[in-house]
Design a protein that fits this description.
Blueprint: E1 2-6, H1 18-31, E2 36-39, H2 47-60, E3 65-68, H3 81-86, E4 96-99, E5 105-110, H4 125-135, H5 147-167, E6 171-176, H6 194-205, H7 210-217, E7 222-227, E8 237-239, E9 242-246, H8 264-271, E10 273-276
Parallel strand pairs: 1-2, 2-3, 5-6, 6-7, 7-9
Antiparallel strand pairs: 1-10, 4-5, 8-9
GO molecular function: hydrolase activity
Protein name: Phosphoesterase
InterPro entries: Calcineurin-like_PHP (IPR004843), Metallo-depent_PP-like (IPR029052), Phosphoesterase_putative (IPR022302)
Length: about 280
């Protein structure tokens, strides 16, 4: 069995031709005899477009089961909170799991979220929320609760799933969009001005949750975590007995290029994670 994992393809932000990209990815999955393909969020700035893309990808790759999570970019358009938490699309992997036949491995998926715990402003939630509402893309997302309450729901769901996997003697591979450990974040230089340092800490607040990292480390059956959201090359890191692997493709920006390959096709292939069982 062969699994392939990717994240943060940003097809619209990277201004890629949709038909060409879809056909290329489908051909690659077929040629490499992939059984399971997972994308961990930020395919489009629109949940409906991501859902439609995976419907088409599945039709082109009948031998591959295709699944997706929603990143924060998906959550800003055609993504009411009730839909993100309760859609019945079989390809949507949020709050789902899959046991790999003939093994003791279980794949668990959760979009994740953030609670400001990566930031020095973690205890100043009102200040961070005000900054977010002015400057951050996610301010347009439908969210009937605070970021901290939303993260609490994520943690409770994963606690239940980790316990269930443990009871069933399953080793876990967790798939999520947001960063699960602060140590995985980019380290800003100490020479930043006060204003830029404040902005950097505000951005850190929206990168993920250290509480998720703490939860993961409490369950010895959780062996690997794959995540996106953080662009640019991120080496695999092992914390305790858990491997943390970033699979984000990132954005080809004119001023700050996040790619280490000359084009999207090579960048996508280079940053795929292929698992063989």
């Amino acid at each position: 069995m062969r699994l392939v994992i990717s994240s943060d393809n940003h097809i619209d932000v990277n201004r890629l031709d949709l038909t060409t990209t879809l056909q290329f990815q489908a051909n690659w999955l077929v040629q490499h005899q992939v059984d399971l393909y997972f994308h961990l969020g930020d395919l489009f700035n629109n949940f409906g477009q991501t859902k439609a893309y995976f419907q088409q990808l599945q039709l082109l790759t009948p031998q591959t089961k295709c699944f997706y999570l929603a990143g924060n970019h998906e959550m800003i358009n055609l993504a009411p909170f009730s839909m993100l938490e309760g859609t019945t699309d079989s390809r949507y992997f949020h709050k789902s799991y899959l046991d790999l036949p003939g093994t003791n491995w279980r794949i668990i998926g959760n979009n994740g979220w953030y609670d400001y715990s990566f930031s020095t402003f973690a205890q100043e939630s009102d200040r961070v929320a005000k900054w977010k509402n002015v400057y951050w893309l996610d301010s347009t997302a439908d969210q009937p609760l605070t970021d901290q309450a939303r993260m609490e729901q994520v943690l409770q769901t994963l606690t239940d799933q980790f316990k269930n996997a443990q009871q069933n003697h399953r080793q876990v591979i967790l798939l999520t969009h947001f960063a699960p450990q602060k140590v995985l974040l980019h380290q800003y230089p100490a020479t930043l001005s006060v204003r830029r340092q404040e902005a950097a800490e505000m951005i850190r607040a929206m990168m993920g949750s250290q509480r998720l990292g703490k939860l993961i480390q409490q369950y010895p059956n959780v062996k690997q975590v794959y995540y996106g959201h953080l662009h640019g090359y991120r080496p695999q890191q092992t914390i305790g007995n858990v491997d943390y692997i970033n699979v984000a493709v990132g954005v080809n920006k004119r001023r700050h290029n996040e790619w280490d390959q000359p084009n999207f096709k090579q960048q996508w292939v280079q940053h795929l994670k292929v698992l063989n069982f």
